[in-house]
Design brief:
heterodimer, A: three-stranded antiparallel sheet, B: alpha/beta, Aldehyde Dehydrogenase, Chain A, domain 2, five-stranded parallel sheet, globular
Chain lengths: 400, 478
């Protein structure tokens, strides 16, 4: 029997579907298999093997002069090891120096494009950029793949196939708009979009212009209300916690609610999503009929999804990366090559392993607690994700 | 472990996030305070009109009586607090242990709060200028002289974003309940004690619980209180005050830059006022906005500074439990050190002299294992334009500034309390006309000596109620 991991890694996968109250099922062309009888240790072991295999494949791709990208081929000249010979498993990635996010700033962005993909249509996505030159990432198809994998985690009864979506969040140079639109299309729907410019919001807040920020937020919510009232049969939505709160309040003031507006499934992310906020949203904004799934991700990594909600977790949010395409580790604050113990706090360390981009050991601006593997995601997870304490004080976070 | 819940219109709410309130000397966790999120406030404020509706059903004289009972309960009773109880002694010890203010000052603040509650009838009478109570309740009515007046509540509740470091500010919100306006309190992280004890005292005295909400939490919670309450007060530094300047919904209370101003007619007698000056600087460890941070005089500046330094320089930290402890501790790491460095930098200017140093017998900055102290500091500034001439810190710090009387009012900048030591009618008139002075004392009055019958930084009645025209019959022909 194939494991979840090998299926995620396989070329013939259509979707991974996790339905509430039933076991995870993996849909293939013409067959359905379950992983219910698998022993977690075996799943973890297999996941590790798959990850090691992915590392070998991706290293070979990015450091082979025939297929690799100019950045890594040039960088490899500085290394005292040969990645193609000396990196044979995930642990070997520690041989690479710390990935510096400054490398992602400025042009030419084609230095990141693998030769093997040079004839593909290329997108460029930005992250950050409130001040100065933003970080950029080139992409061809990763955003589609990431969101197709994510689609498999969405329950069909809450995110009905064929229903339309509202994308209420930042678009502009981010990949989010295209990715959510693809998600809607992948599930047979059409995506209606309302834009928000978080860089402008950050500027307003830094200038102390709270009232202007509130007016801008209201302008965004006005547009969402118009779309929802226009008979577009929208049942699914992407939005951020702050915008969901603002939309819910507007609907309450109008004597309605998110549920009464016809929304049944919300994919929420983009800013800090706390345990208390999750509970508040479920109990006071959404009710029992609206499903909300927390997500954690960025332009580099893709999308980590939350462990499915169970009451015993008391709204604790645990994220699992879309391994083996990306890995989240919880690193020791002082030595990022060491992972903290389970339940202990450390800094988020991301590794991305796709043919479009190779990012080893990127230290995110977040921290959290390391979590045990789960049978649906048999690799380490992270809970309590929040801004890294040393950076948080100096940063305007969660503004939109 | 004492656990203190969020209060949502009188109902306890247990959050999934809690914050430890820690003894600054021992590190002991004294309580865990449940943390609200901003959305809770947004949801709850949709029900805020109910608070005023409920309070308007209770006649104001009855609420005033409840304030008297609350005064006694707050000062003397063992009251529920979260999952435990708290005696008055527990209260001032805990407050001292988390804010750094000496215990005797905390106990003294209790008396002050209790006094204000006990004298609510007189305070309301003074602040409303004798307005019949039912005009506040009904929104209109006739004064004793037969004139129709209308006072419309600007908001059903008042939001308060409270500080951690200055328990004295709580007197400001006590007249709110008897004016039939609900209360939404966001306690300072180190000082949840007063809001919760006062809430319990009010409720045990008969005020309905559903008119109170208490939302401990981070900056997001404070922002939500300010955004979602039609009227709110916040306490902070100069940037906070500047941010809300001109916003009619928010009253921002910041540094006071309070001063003693000598007129030329009295300045030669400065020695008679040395106690007044020293107390104005030192009382309450110089932590209040009404503490004196500037003494301005056209002559004798150097001598005044020297005499004050001789008096204040030797003052040193004592244990917070010592009944004579004169100084409050800085419990947040790095704050005292940063202030100390700022003062040293400011003293590098040629016109500024640190006068206390030779009387102190040690460093201004006293660093202990878990807290820091700053010892009293007196500067002499021969140039009123020097930055240190108009600076305020949260410890006994004062600049004695040389400045001709005719330039004084323009040079002092915004001043919360000015005590003008003068009998000169012309200077007195100029002081009365100075719009950059809020509370004005003319005569030998310490800056820290408040009469509770006087408004503080704007009359709270004017903040909560709007005087407007109202007619229920045609006006006389004219």
């Amino acid at each position: 029997m194939a494991t979840l991991l090998s299926l995620l890694n396989g070329a013939d996968i259509l979707a991974v579907c996790i339905l509430p109250n039933c076991l995870p099922s993996l849909f293939f062309r013409g067959e359905k298999r379950t992983v219910s009888g698998e022993n977690l240790d075996a799943l973890v072991s297999k996941a590790k093997d798959d990850l090691d295999a992915q590392v070998c494949e991706i290293i070979e791709w990015h450091f082979n002069p025939e297929t690799g990208c100019p950045f890594w081929l040039e960088k490899a000249q500085e290394f005292n090891f040969d990645p193609r010979k000396d990196v044979k498993c995930f642990d070997d990635l520690k041989k690479f120096p710390s990935f510096e996010d400054e490398w992602l700033r400025g042009g030419p962005v084609r230095r990141w494009l693998p030769k093997g993909l040079e004839n593909e249509p290329v997108y460029v996505f930005e992250t950050g950029g409130t001040t100065g030159i933003p970080k950029t990432r080139v992409a061809c198809n990763d955003f589609r793949t990431d969101y197709e994998v994510f689609s498999g985690t969405l329950p069909d009864e809450s995110f009905p196939r064929g229903s339309n979506w509202l994308m209420l969040g930042p678009s502009g140079p981010r990949r989010l708009r295209l990715a959510v639109e693809h998600l809607a299309q992948f599930r047979g729907g059409i995506c209606f979009c309302v834009d928000l410019d978080p860089r402008w919001v950050v500027k307003l807040l830094k200038r102390g212009k709270v009232q202007d920020m509130e007016e801008y937020r209201d302008h965004v919510i006005d547009q969402a209300m118009t779309v929802l009232s226009a008979g577009h049969d929208i049942k699914c939505m992407f939005t951020t916690p702050k915008l969901l709160e603002a939309l819910a309040m507007r609907l309450i003031d109008d004597g309605s609610s998110i549920a009464e507006a016809g929304i049944t499934g919300i994919f929420c992310g983009g800013t800090e999503f706390t345990q208390q906020w999750y509970r508040f949203a479920k109990e006071e904004l959404l009710g029992d009929d609206v499903y909300i799934t927390p997500t954690y991700g960025n332009t580099l990594m893709g999308l980590a999804c939350g462990k499915p909600f169970v009451p015993e977790d008391n709204y604790k949010i645990t994220y699992y990366a879309p391994q083996p395409r990306a890995v989240i580790e919880v690193a020791d604050f002082k030595d990022s090559n060491l992972n903290v113990g389970y339940g202990e706090t450390g800094r988020v360390k991301l590794t991305t392993l796709t043919k479009e981009i190779f990012v080893p050991g990127f230290l995110e601006r977040d921290e959290g607690e390391r979590e045990q593997p789960h049978e649906k995601y048999p690799w380490d997870g992270i809970s309590g994700v929040r801004p890294f304490h040393e950076i948080a004080k100096a940063t305007t976070v969660g503004v939109y | 472990m004492l656990e203190i819940p969020v209060i949502r219109w009188g109902k306890p709410y247990e959050s999934l996030e809690k914050d430890d309130v820690v003894h600054f000397e021992t590190g002991e966790v004294l309580a865990q305070v449940h943390q609200a999120n901003g959305g809770l406030i947004k949801v709850d404020m949709r029900k805020a009109p109910n608070a005023r509706k409920v309070l308007c059903e209770i006649p104001i004289p009855d609420l005033v009586e409840m304030c008297k009972k609350a005064a006694d309960l707050y000062l003397n009773a063992e009251l529920p607090l979260g999952n435990g109880t708290q005696t008055p002694e527990d209260f001032y010890r805990m407050q001292s242990a988390t804010t750094g203010l000496p215990e005797h000052m905390c106990a003294s603040n209790m008396k002050k709060n209790s006094f204000v509650l006990n004298n609510m009838a007189e305070i309301l009478d003074a602040l409303t200028r004798g307005l019949p109570y039912d005009i506040l309740t009904n929104g209109f009515g006739k004064e004793e002289r037969g004139v129709m007046v209308s006072y419309q509540a600007n908001a059903p509740v008042l939001g308060m974003v409270l500080p951690s470091n200055s328990p004295g500010v709580h007197t400001l919100w006590m007249p709110v309940i008897p004016m039939q306006v609900g209360l939404v309190l966001k306690p300072g992280p180190q000082e949840p004690w007063t809001p919760y004890r006062m809430y319990e005292a009010f409720c045990q005295a008969g005020v309905p619980r559903e008119v109170f909400s208490i939302y401990p939490g981070g900056p997001e919670v404070g922002a939500a209180v300010l955004a979602d309450c039609e009227r709110a007060m916040i306490f902070g530094g100069t940037p906070t005050v500047e941010r809300y300047h001109g916003n009619p919904r928010v009253q921002a209370h910041g540094p006071g830059f309070s001063k003693v101003l000598f007129g030329d007619d009295m300045v030669d007698d400065w020695e008679q006022y040395i106690d007044l000056m020293a107390d104005s600087v030192l009382v309450n460890s110089g932590r209040s906005c009404i503490s004196c941070s500037g003494i301005w005089a056209s002559r004798h500046g150097k001598e005044i500074a020297e005499a004050l330094a001789e008096r204040l320089g030797p003052v040193e930290p004592l244990s917070p439990t010592d009944p004579n402890a004169p100084l409050a501790a800085f419990t947040l790491p790095g704050v005292a050190e940063a202030m100390n460095a700022q003062i040293d930098e400011g003293c590098k200017v040629g016109s500024v002299t640190e006068v206390t140093e030779k009387h102190r017998g040690g460093s201004r900055l006293v660093q202990q294992e878990r807290c820091d102290y700053l010892r009293p500091t007196v500067l002499h500034c021969s140039d009123p334009a020097a930055e240190m001439a108009n600076t305020e810190y949260m410890f006994p710090f004062v600049s004695v500034v040389d400045c001709p009387q005719e330039k004084m009012i323009k040079s002092i900048g915004q001043t919360l309390v000015a005590s003008g030591i003068t009998e000169d009618p012309t200077f007195s008139r100029q002081l009365l006309d100075a719009t950059n002075i809020d509370r004005l004392n003319i005569g030998a009055v310490k800056t820290i000596a408040l009469n509770w019958l006087q408004p503080h930084e704007g009359n709270i009645v004017d903040f909560l109620f709007r005087a407007r025209a109202f007619q229920n019959s045609p006006p006389p022909a004219h």
